[in-house]
Predict the 3D structure of the following.
Amino acid sequence: MPDSKQAKAPATQKVAPAPPPPKAKDAPAAPWELDYGDGSGNGLRFWQEEGKAARFSYSPMTPELSSSGTYSGGSPNRGELTAGQAQALWTEARRLESNTALHAASRMKGTGSFTITSPTGKGAFIVSRSHLKPWETLVKPFRKE
């Protein structure tokens, strides 16, 4: 006969599962275009045509066009994006777009200018220099300096 004073094992507690990680903000359905002008006059264009791979084009500032007459943003570059690269670009672009506290009222040297075109419309916004570091880190591999 079991001892009635024996300690009972604690009841198993059910623990709620951890919430899923936040979902990346998906790229819109093709065709889409994401244009970025950095604070030094260099341009990056990312786009995807329907049924094709996403692509990029880097158009650097040249000394002939720079205000100093000497600045160069490097050499032009073009190529194809992986699905992961396109997703990462859209996730960060949407983060910057949705957080209006990061936006600048007007285009000034050092700000980043974004234009997004998709089947649902076209939008543009400007981000203050101090908030561009994550984006600049993300797009650095597409530049050819």
